[in-house]
């Protein structure tokens, strides 16, 4: 057993897990706030990246302004989605809501394909690419920095939810909407904000991913594997998303290293099945208590 | 409530009316030769599909203008998007076959070509081609009515190996690594390539499989790095994740490794999209590039027509060239059959195809074209010059068995 | 207007086609189906065959998700199991009337395996478990070269019945319609048996169902088994239809396709399944024809408008879910009510 190789794979895995955790955070935010699994998360990532690209390459804005532009654009889309797509389906069976997010995903995917075309586009470089080399172990710069960006975003959001009034209001509305209404919290507003945050998180993740590889409508496919992370961590646990993200990232990397790239397809789902058999609500998820 | 229902009803009526248009979208005029196609205009292969579509279409238009069609009969190009999805391509195939009964059909992928081959063989009315160069399909016995306008993927990799072998300095043979995608497209030439490398004495030090369209390839690159190959052959990709591989390898200090690819990653736009790491990108291409018009009258004609017909295209892509070549092969086959006063059936067209053993493609392919084996087994190694932003030849025209 | 609709016997009350009008409509419909390949042309026959296969598979999904309330996102993989079973048996020359049911049985067994987590989890979590099953089965399809032919795929010889080789769309149309008819009738009758009613009880409130004495685990497993059986049969028919099968036929996108079909059509109804499957199969074709029609006026329309097909598609799904949550079958029922009550208002 070559420890150096193992260390390299582990390091790569842990650090790329940061990005997985970020996307997982997007899922968790929406589930916590509105009890919906958003299958259109990948499309939010893709759209966010495209908006940043538009700002930078078409409108010739400096990079930081393009990021703001992208976030603003995604927020608008999120608000529209929440108001016109999700709210009419409040109270409908779970399977309908799931389907509507899937339909939404298809709609966004087609829109991006129509406006920007299907070809690969080059994103401006966001993160320093200088690799970190310790002897025979190399950690690509993008992977390293994307981890810290993800951590910063997650930390920022956690602090926000913990200490700011709006954050606390969002948590209240998520845990018990009726009591929150009774206390004067505008639950509809908090749900809107939840979607906005999730959209922004997705946009950041999407932009990072696109700057590492290339920008194309196929970007939306990367989010499906993150479902494994979300389930492992618990659908409504932010901390769970982080831990699960790191764990799944590490497992994937080790599997790829020792079994080849095909394992990347398999590992997340085997993990999901294993977790669902053993701890159905994930590592840190809250147990669903069903009442008659 | 009522307005909503009314709106729904009118939308449904409109849709229903347009559905009546399903078989009647175009009227075939007698004497016309229909060239039907299901190119992947949307979907993951879209950047290629658009070019392919234009190439075949423009060839048909040029042929009608310049030569009055084929034996006096005009060519009519009919195509519908396949979205690079097999079932959609099949549906388009069935639809166009039913509506026009075309003598020739251009498909969209390996999956379609294999799925449709059963029916095409049974029908025996149509000669087919597609962007697929899968080795299984260049089989005149098992797949009688399919040909490819280039070498098989296995032949392409063989050409790459020939070049690598010729670059051996001193007594040591260079080491090779294979990076391919886990699709039929990607896996197609791998076994044959590994065998061939073994025969040539080239050591395949690593074999990396990636998920098609995967984003994070750091672990795969880590594996590749450890093998320290001299040459890396990529196959089965359109663009991603090749640039990321190259970037990470260079960042790790492996500046002498040479990266090579096969036909579909050898377009100018692909190499440009790689950015600075694209400099020195090499690969095998069965055609000339459109800026290379010396001794190539067909390339000149093609460029001129493209300029006229599509003024917003600044550089004719390899996909367009491929489409143009396919169109010219279709036309040549049909001409040979009609000249011999035979009807346009599958067996006749296959026989005519196989008589094209020394056909002059007008310079699109560097050597005379031999389609006896239903493939054009020649190609040339090119290298991308990032300053000139063009591919330049790095070898002569190589023939494979 | 329907008047004088009274039932004089239990048998009459329980029957599927009650009035004479209904029966004559059904006879007319069956007659149309029988002569369709001769009048429709090869393209429409192809579409009809495809719709038939989709109807069978969607019916299976409707049993699992519509009747029993267990969301399944792995339905396409079960089709694949059935299809590859058929392909493998076909290598030994086993005739189609054995391979197809066997394909269904193998698929049912795999379905039960996938349904085992339903003992502990439900709702969205179960959906994700089935999603995991979908991807794991896809992996098996691609890697298990000896049985499935891996990424290259596998060829299936055309079905044969005493010398009659079924290798044109016309021939297989009848086979597909026969299977679809039998299976749809079976599903409809399922709703009238205690098994079907226990499914509905599990769907509506499974805790109450358990209190009433319904074995939840057995019920859910049975639902998965039946649903996967249908999927397996549909997969087998697809094998004989396409005759060259690759794993790309059974992707997650197809699972979503079936889910959309039953939701748009109407969860938990047989008619909804038919309407939904037909809708999902035909709408993309119509959209593509519209785009092709437009190219007559604007030659570049295809490049610009083709991506809009996906947009329109997504928008249609969303519109259906918002405005007609009970699906196409509800629109159908409204139309029927209109005719039944005319000249009175509904």
Distinctive features:
heterotrimer; A: 292 residues; mainly alpha; ABC transporter involved in vitamin B12 uptake, BtuC; two-stranded antiparallel ribbon; 11 helices; 2 strands; C: 346 residues; two-stranded antiparallel sheet; 74% helix
Write the element-wise H/E pattern of chain A from the N-terminal end onward: HHHHEEHHHHHHH
Number of E strands of chain C: 4
DSSP strand content of chain C = under 5%
What separation lies between the terminal Cα atoms of chain C? 11 Å
Shape of chain C: globular
What is the spatial order of strands in the main beta sheet of chain A?
1-2
User: Class of chain A, according to the CATH hierarchy?
Assistant: Mainly Alpha
Q: Name the average pLDDT of chain C.
A: 89
Q: What's the CATH architecture of chain C?
A: Orthogonal Bundle
Tell me what the CATH architecture of chain A is.
Orthogonal Bundle
Largest sheet of chain A: 2 strands, antiparallel
Q: How would you classify the helix and strand content of chain C by structural class?
A: mainly alpha
Oligomer: heterotrimer
Describe this structure in words.
Chain A has helices spanning 3-34, 41-58, 63-86, 94-116, 141-163, 165-175, 177-182, 187-212, 226-233, 238-259, 263-278, and strands spanning 132-134, 137-139. By secondary structure, chain A is an all-alpha fold. In chain A, strands 1-2 form a two-stranded antiparallel sheet. In chain A, strand 1 (132-134) and strand 2 (137-139) form a beta hairpin. In chain A, helix 1 packs across helix 9 and helix 10 (238-259) crosses helix 11 (263-278). Chain B is α/β, with parallel strands linked by helices and 401 residues long. Chain B folds into two domains: 33-151 and 295-370, Rossmann fold (3-Layer(aba) Sandwich), CATH 3.40.50; 153-285 and 382-399, Response regulator (Rossmann fold). Chain C has one domain (41-341): Orthogonal Bundle (ABC transporter involved in vitamin B12 uptake, BtuC), CATH 1.10.3470. Chain C starts with 9 loop residues before the first helix and ends in a 5-residue tail after the last helix. Classes of the chains: A mainly alpha (292), B alpha/beta (401), C mainly alpha (346). The interface between B and C is large, with 42 and 42 residues.
């Amino acid at each position: 057993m070559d420890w150096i190789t193992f260390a390299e794979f582990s390091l790569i895995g842990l650090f790329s897990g940061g990005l997985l955790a970020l996307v997982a955070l997007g899922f968790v935010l929406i589930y916590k706030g509105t009890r919906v699994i958003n299958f259109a998360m990948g499309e939010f990532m893709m759209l966010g990246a495209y908006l940043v690209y538009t700002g930078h390459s078409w409108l010739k804005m400096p990079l930081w302004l393009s990021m703001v532009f992208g976030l603003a654009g995604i927020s608008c889309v999120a608000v529209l989605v929440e108001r016109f797509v999700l709210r009419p389906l409040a109270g409908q069976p779970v399977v309908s809501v799931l389907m509507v997010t899937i339909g939404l995903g298809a709609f966004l995917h087609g829109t991006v394909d129509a406006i920007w075309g299907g070809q690969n586009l080059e994103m401006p470089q966001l993160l320093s690419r200088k690799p970190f080399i310790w002897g025979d172990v190399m950690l690509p710069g993008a992977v390293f920095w994307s981890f810290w960006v993800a951590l910063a975003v997650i930390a920022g959001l956690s602090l926000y939810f913990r200490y700011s009034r709006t954050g606390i209001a969002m948590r209240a509305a998520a845990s018990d909407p009726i009591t929150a209404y009774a206390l004067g919290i505008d639950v509809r507003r908090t749900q809107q904000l939840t979607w906005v945050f999730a959209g922004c998180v997705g946009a950041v993740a999407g932009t990072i991913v696109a700057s590492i590889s290339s920008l194309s409508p196929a970007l939306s496919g990367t989010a499906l594997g993150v479902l494994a992370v979300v389930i492992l961590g618990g659908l409504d646990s932010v901390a769970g998303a982080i831990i699960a993200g790191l764990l799944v990232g590490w497992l994937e990397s080790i599997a790829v290293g020792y079994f080849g790239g095909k394992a990347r397809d398999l590992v997340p789902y085997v993990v999901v099945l294993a977790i669902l058999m053993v701890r159905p609500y994930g590592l840190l998820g809250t147990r669903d208590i069903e009442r008659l | 409530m009522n307005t909503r229902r009314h709106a729904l009803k009118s939308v449904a009526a409109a849709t229903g009316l347009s559905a009546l248009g399903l078989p009647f979208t175009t009227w075939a005029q007698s004497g016309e030769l229909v060239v039907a196609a299901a190119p992947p205009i949307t979907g993951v292969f879209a950047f290629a599909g658009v070019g392919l579509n234009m190439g075949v279409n423009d060839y048909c238009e040029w042929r009608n203008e310049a030569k009055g069609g084929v034996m006096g009969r005009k060519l009519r190009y009919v195509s519908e998007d396949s979205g690079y999805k097999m079932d959609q391509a099949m549906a388009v195939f069935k639809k166009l076959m039913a509506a026009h009964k075309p003598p020739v059909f251009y498909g969209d992928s390996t999956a379609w070509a294999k799925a449709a081959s059963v029916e095409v063989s049974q029908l025996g009315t149509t000669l087919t081609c597609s962007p697929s160069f899968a080795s299984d399909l260049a089989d005149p016995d098992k797949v009688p009515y399919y040909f490819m306008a280039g070498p098989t993927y296995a032949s392409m990799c063989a050409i790459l190996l020939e070049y690598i072998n010729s670059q051996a300095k001193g007594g040591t043979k260079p080491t090779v690594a294979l990076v391919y995608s886990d699709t039929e497209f990607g896996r197609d030439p791998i076994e044959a390539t590994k065998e061939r490398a073994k025969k040539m004495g080239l050591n395949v030090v690593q074999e990396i499989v990636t998920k098609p369209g995967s984003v994070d390839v750091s672990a795969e690159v880590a594996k590749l790095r450890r093998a320290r190959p001299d040459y890396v052959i990529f196959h089965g990709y359109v663009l991603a994740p090749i640039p990321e591989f190259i970037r990470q390898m260079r960042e790790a200090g492996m500046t002498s490794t040479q990266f090579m690819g096969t036909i579909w990653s050898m377009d100018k736009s692909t190499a440009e999209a790689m950015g600075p790491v694209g400099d020195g990108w090499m690969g095998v291409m069965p055609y000339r590039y459109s800026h290379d018009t010396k001794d190539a009258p067909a390339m000149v004609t093609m460029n001129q027509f493209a300029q006229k017909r599509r003024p917003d295209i600044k550089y004719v892509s390899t996909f367009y060239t491929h489409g143009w070549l396919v169109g010219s092969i279709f036309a040549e086959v049909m001409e040979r059959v009609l000249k011999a006063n035979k009807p346009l059936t599958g067996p006749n067209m296959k026989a005519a195809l196989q008589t094209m053993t020394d056909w002059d493609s007008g310079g699109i392919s560097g050597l005379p074209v031999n389609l006896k084996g239903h493939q054009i087994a020649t190609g040339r190694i090119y290298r991308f010059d990032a300053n000139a932003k063009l591919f330049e030849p790095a070898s002569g025209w190589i023939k494979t068995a | 207007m329907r008047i004088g609709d009274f039932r004089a016997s239990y048998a009459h009350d329980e029957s599927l086609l009650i009035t004479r009008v209904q029966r004559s409509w059904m006879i007319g419909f069956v007659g149309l189906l029988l002569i369709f390949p001769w009048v429709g042309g090869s393209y429409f026959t192809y579409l009809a065959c495809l719709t038939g296969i989709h109807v069978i598979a969607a019916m299976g999904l409707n049993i699992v998700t519509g009747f029993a309330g267990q969301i399944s996102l792995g339905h396409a993989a079960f089709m694949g199991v059935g299809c590859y079973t058929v392909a493998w048996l076909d290598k030994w020359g086993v005739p189609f009337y054995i391979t197809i049911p066997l394909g269904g049985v193998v698929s049912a067994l795999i379905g039960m395996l996938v349904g085992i987590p339903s003992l502990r989890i439900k709702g969205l979590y179960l959906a994700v478990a089935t999603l995991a099953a979908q991807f794991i089965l896809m992996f098996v399809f691609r890697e298990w070269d000896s049985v499935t032919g891996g990424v290259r795929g596998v060829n299936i010889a055309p079905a044969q019945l005493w010398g009659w080789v079924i290798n044109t769309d016309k021939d297989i149309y009848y086979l597909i319609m026969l299977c679809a008819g039998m299976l749809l009738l079976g599903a409809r009758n399922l709703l009238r048996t205690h098994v079907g009613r226990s499914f509905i009880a599990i769907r509506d409130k499974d805790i109450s169902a358990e209190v009433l004495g319904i074995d939840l685990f057995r019920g859910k497993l049975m639902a998965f088994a039946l649903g996967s059986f249908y999927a397996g049969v549909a997969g087998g028919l697809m094998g004989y239809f396409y005759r060259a099968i690759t794993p790309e036929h059974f992707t997650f996108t197809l699972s979503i396709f079936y889910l959309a079909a039953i939701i748009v059509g109407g969860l938990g109804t047989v008619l909804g399944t038919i309407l939904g499957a037909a809708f999902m199969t035909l709408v993309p074709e119509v959209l593509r024809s519209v785009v092709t029609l437009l190219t007559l006026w604007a030659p570049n329309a295809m490049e610009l408008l083709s991506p809009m097909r996906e947009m329109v598609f997504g928008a249609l799904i969303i519109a259906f879910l918002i405005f007609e949550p009970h699906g196409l079958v509800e629109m159908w029922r409204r139309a029927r009510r209109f005719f039944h009550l005319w000249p009175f208002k509904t």
